[in-house]
Write a structure and sequence with these properties.
The chain has 236 residues and is mainly beta. It has one domain: outer membrane protein from Thermus thermophilus HB27 (Porin, Beta Barrel). It is built from four helices and ten strands; from the N terminus they run ααβββαββββββαβ. It has helices at 2-22, 25-28, 94-98, 211-215, and strands spanning 35-43, 45-58, 61-72, 103-123, 126-144, 150-171, 174-185, 190-195, 200-204, 223-234. An eight-stranded antiparallel β-barrel has the order 1-2-3-4-5-6-7-10. β1 (35-43) and β2 (45-58) form a beta hairpin. The relative contact order is 0.18. Residues 1-30 have low confidence and may be disordered. It comes from Deinococcus reticulitermitis. Keywords: Signal. Residues 1-18 form the signal peptide. This is Outer membrane protein beta-barrel domain-containing protein.
């Protein structure tokens, strides 16, 4: 009887263990193959990106969350008057001030949340996926003048994006991939802070009559094409 009881208990424990494995979140939610990726390339300037990707959350559909930082190739348009396009004033273009020593700098920080779709194998060790989702961009441009004054103008904007990745499996848990995509950002309020003489701060909403004129001064993204290469770690 004791042997029979022990055998029955062992069988029950084995069954319970099997049930535990079945209901683990990593299995039921498809998180077991989570990937971490880093990439670098071009997106309106030199750009680096890091992301986490949970593929096959529901069949071929997954989720990707990424953050990218870009050093833009241009922040302030040289051919627009510093008073704004069509302002009626002629104070000189930013390009003319640059010739006298003015400088510019800027940055783009973007966050993206995408749904992904596994397109499957497309060749030996090659696999493709498509993605589409929302974007939130934080764009900044600073103009520095030789009289020790500077103005930083920023725009935060929502957007959408689509793209595709083609990955080549180098080894278990390591994939080399290329990433091509396009993002479209919408207009957002312009916030400017001036330092030095006559310090001030200002906000121009998108429905302001001056918005289009001032927006034209800055090379903040509208449509952005990106091309990057990187590595993904993890996965199945």
């Amino acid at each position: 009887m004791k042997k029979l009881f022990a055998l029955s208990l062992t069988s029950l424990l084995a069954a319970a263990s099997a049930q535990t494995v079945i209901v683990q979140p990593s299995a039921s939610l498809g998180l077991r193959g989570t990937e971490f990726g880093v990439s670098a390339g071009y997106a309106a300037g030199g750009s680096v990106e890091a992301f986490v990707h949970a593929p096959n959350v529901a069949g071929p559909v997954g989720i990707k969350l990424g953050v990218a930082y870009t050093k833009p190739s241009d922040s302030i348009r040289d051919d627009v008057d510093i008073s704004g396009a069509n302002s009626g004033l002629t104070l000189g273009t930013f390009g003319s001030y640059k010739a006298e020593g003015a400088t510019e700098s800027g940055s783009h920080l973007t966050v993206g949340l995408d749904g992904t779709y596994d397109l499957g194998p497309v060749g030996t060790n090659l696999r493709a996926l498509g993605y589409a989702g929302g974007r939130y961009g934080m764009f900044s441009a600073t103009e520095n003048y030789d009289d020790a004054t500077s103005t930083t103008t920023s725009m935060n904007a929502f957007g959408v994006g689509v793209g595709a990745q083609l990955g080549y499996r180098l080894a278990n848990g390591m994939t080399l991939f290329g990433d091509l995509g396009v993002d479209q950002y919408f207009n957002g309020p312009l916030r400017s802070v001036k330092t030095g003489a006559n310090q001030n701060a200002d906000v121009i909403p998108t429905n302001d009559a001056l918005y289009a004129s001032q927006r034209a001064r800055f090379a903040f993204p509208g449509t952005v094409f990106k091309a990057k290469i990187g590595l993904k770690f993890g996965g199945n």
